[in-house]
Amino acid sequence: MMTSSVSVLEEETGRLECRMDTSPPPYTNVSWTRDGHPVSVDDYRVSLSGMGEGVSQGVSVLRIRWARLEDVGLYVCVVTTEGHPPVHTMPAKFDVIERLKFSPRPLDSRVEVGGNVSIPCEARGEVTPEVTWYRPNATKLVEAASRENIQVTDGTLEVIGAELHDSGVYVCMATSQQGTINASINLAVIESPVMEWVTHSPVQVDKGGTLMLECRARGTPKPSIHWDYNHTPNAFDPDRVEMHGNGTLQLSGVRREDGGVYGCTAGNMGGLVRAEITVSVSGESIQPLGRTVGVAVGGAAAYIALVGAMLIYCRQRRLRLKNSPPHTRGEGSEEAQSPEEQERLMYTARQSGGLDGDIREFGAATSKPGAQLDPACQVQLSQVSTHTLGTSTHLGLSQASTKTMGGSSVSTQHSSPQQANSSPSAQSTAQAGPSDAIYPRHEASNHAAGQDKAKIQRENIQVLLTLGRGEFGEVQLARLRTSPEDSDGEDTPPDPDKLVMVKVVSTRDEQLLAEVCREAAMFSGPPHPHVVSALGLCTSHTPHLLVTQYTDWGDLKQFLLATRKESPRPLGSLRPPPLTYQQCLSLSLQVAEALEYLSGRRHTHKDVAARNCLITSKLQLKLAAPALTRDAYQAEYCTYRNQVLPVRWLSPEALLEDEYSMKSSVFSWAWLAWEILTQATLPHSTITDQQVMAAAQTGDLQCAPPSGTPADLGSLLSSCWQQSPKARPAIQSVVETLKTLS
Question: Is pTM beyond 0.90 here?
């Protein structure tokens, strides 16, 4: 006999019973099926009570805890007794009533003043609910759509031209026959910081006195104000410097070395604004100033004396010529010629070519490099501030800031571009500000000698094609030229040694900009054979550029797909052969060594996958981070909790708790090795992204090595996929094991 149909509410417990008259175990076995498929019993959510395999006094109970919508179906009890055919009961329907719930729950949002924002609110249940938005007003709720710039469309709250008074709490309410539920979100309207008052520069203070510098800014939320000295933060003596809450800096007991440039940076979620104040200490420049004034006065006196002497000489000479007889004046000489005669002779000489040589020589002299500067390319060096990446966590502190890689900084000269001891070429290089020089990473000892050669001009980056779009903006493949004229022809293949990948950072989101800085720091350390090197990070003009290495064969994912027999290829091109087992081990080892190197530098790669590795024609891998989440590899990412994540590669703690560590990278590395062994097959290809996330939440996500994997490598992959991070091996242990297997 079988229990009749059962109906339970979602997330509650359901129970099915099967009564029979048969032999006791072990001669009899009882199992259950749903819609003709065996029911998987895990003793956690789905359990089977009874002695042995489920039989106890002729009763078998199937208990389903936290019922889900996918548990709906026709259940049949199957009784199998030795020596007899299986007996099936009549099917019983198990129905789950869907709760009224938000799917997904609306989240807090923020928008700049004057911007637009849409906040979706979707609800579902057994009966389709009606969704409305309200805003608390004192003790009652007021419909959000009552404002002129706010409207609700299909459950989505849309704010058009946001204003400061639009900030606050909004309530999404879903109502149906099952009841009413609500969810509150906070909308923050952000006003970018604006300087209201800054102490006028320059400022002169007496030695031993007190220096007061004011810096006030407005914005929403209230901007935080930070001071730096000569572009170095936290460089103040805490015993003498006091920072007031209103943004005032007070320096007591001024010393001579306190003179310099004081920078005030005000920032909030809307951006950053900066002002600089030059401070000089009296007594520090009295002698140089006196010496300068003396030189200037002496030079002016000498010039006046020279002009006076020339005037006296010319007057006496004219008197001598006027009083001398005509035959002694030298009528044919140039001195005795009238202005009309001199002009006629000059015209005749010009027509006969007598002056061509002088004209050409003068023209050549003025066209030498550095002899003349295009005013459009000039920039005041005193406006250029240079920071190392290690001293700044934000991009765009000012429109004239240049960041260098590897911790080496290009010194900034606060002086006139036309220095006495500088060559013309050096002057033209120093004044070419708008050409947007990118300073690549290099050793500090080599920088001073080859400063001009180390610059990468923006016009020397020749874009070849767009690889795709990521969260920051476009990712482009480019060729790095030594000069604007160094350009390949259309039929000439680019030099693989000059190929670079350029990330065009067009976002203004503070978290994404911080991620750009983190990525630049991760790839800007000492070179490693299996990690791409960051060549430059430019923030002097928008959009910002992050330039890294590229390889001749592109990303590993496309290479693995090309090794498949069924992969399409252009007519006449050759398909690379499938990788051997030893080659697969070698590629997996190279990525593990790259992660070991990053671990030693306290960096964690959050997106370890074949699409983010580059491969050369010598089968050398380099770990990179193109992260083409918008088009090329959009299908391999999923939006979860307002983040675009590679859910199929992430460990449970990274996906659910946003906890990234080297153990989470070990988990992702195992899936990368799985891709290499399976020619870039998608992990968990038989289920959807939502099913992957649901299985990760319940701990039911199945991770298994590919069929045919040797036992020792399969054991290593299984250990990397352990649910607990503590149970996974360290990346150093993975490297040693792979070296042993190779």
Answer: no
